[in-house]
Amino acid sequence: MSYGILAKERTVAGPGFNRWLVPPAALAIHLCIGMAYGFSVFWLPLSKLLPVTDPLACAHLSLWQEMFTTTCNWNVPSVTHTFEMFIAMLGISAALWGGWLEHAGPRKAGFIAALCWGGGLVLGGIGVMVHQLWLLWLGCGILGGVGQGLGYIAPVSSLIKWFPDRRGMATGFAIMGYGGGAMIGAPIAVALMKNFGAMSPQGVAPTLIAMGILYFVIMSLGAFGFRVAPTGWKPAGWTPPAPGTGKAMISHKDVHLNEAWKTPQFWQVWLVLCLNVTAGIGVISMASPMLQEVFGTRLIGMVDAGPMTPDQKAKVVAAAAGLVGLISLFNSLGRIFWASLSDALGRKATYAIFFIFGMVLYVSMPTLGHFGLAGMFVVVVCLILTMYGGGFSTVPAYLADLFGTQMVGAIHGRLLTAWSVAGIIGPSLIAAIRQYQLDSGVPHNLVYDRTLYLLAGMLLVGLISNLLIRPVDAKHHMTDEQLQKERSLQHEQVGAGLADTAARGSFGLFGVLAWAAVGIPFLIGVYKALVKAAALF
Fold it and tell me: What pTM value is reported for the model?
């Protein structure tokens, strides 16, 4: 029987493969789609594409008119809807096609993700060229969002099966890339816009098209680098703990996707992720303005003395921009740190730390602001962001512990709707509370206090939900017949007889090159983030 080059059957690992080649393939995809966090570099240039406009005609455009106008610049809130769209589509597409992905395999899913994310950026660039906002939304927001969702969950199930001894660390490696994608992509985008500025308004359109092509190539290479473990494969020398002898929260049975979402555990973890993300994204969305408004000229070592001069304001803005770089760095590093630590502590205990420690940090931030302790304030924000990122990277292993590994990728896809909800509601709620307080006469330097206390309250609810999680009732487990049927649908019979000999190859030169290909750009991104953050100190 012959199979297409994208078929899952063609990706079953042979004897010469090494499992440490899977994380760089996953990182190649996640470092590309992680540019989602860096899209803010486009917002201002997108609002200045037309050099000459009619102020009177453009003053009161409705959103519908703005979608189709070719004579008026778009406003910043309208173009930022692109971010909301691809975060929403990330969760929706992951939920809709998670089950298909388990059957199709990571190579096919990863390649389609490359087509959607890369193609979406190209289509968005064309939308910028013809100045059609709806086309920007369709390309980057909708089509790109589908690529985000498929690319995000494509490696999860395979990584967990390749690393049954280190589930958290394995998914942490991949999802670390999503947190670090902006550190690499944002500087590239800025440099390309500057380079293309002479041939295109603000250089945005050719930048989006160039990055779309670049990301398509890199993600495709990552997709074709995937291999899946044969059924029954385990690392040499590792023996899985017998039922009843390991950690109580780790299941030795599997739950079907269609059954998992009916369990209380699924919705408890859903709430845990949603609240952790809402609190963290609240800090991300207001970090730079919060730092500027709370500390003012104290941020550049000066005592507040009335309104800032233009030069002082520019220095304060530059210092606050350094925090944005640190946020990307700690968001990324927190993903591998906490996910790896969860292998030793357990997922439930790790999330308990997120919530308890997080509440202390959120509650301390207003006090640090009142005393003008900008340095400590920045440290607290960075710690919060490690736990924000850690929540994303730890949750796939949490799901594998509760529901087994057979359909964990699909279950993870359903769970990511929590991220979509948090990504839309979180920033909107925070902005609304801030504006309400400003309208009520609250000074700018105090306007975030109640917001931070509210976020701490959200973490308390998340803590309670996490503490209530118990092992899944046996009535939800798949029977042996159901498990065999699902394995057949996932084509796991291919290579099953080679489980004891598969993936025993050496790391070799190819492994070094694969890790260098993703590691060097990541380290360059880290360096650039640290250089930008130096303005804070």
Answer: 0.89
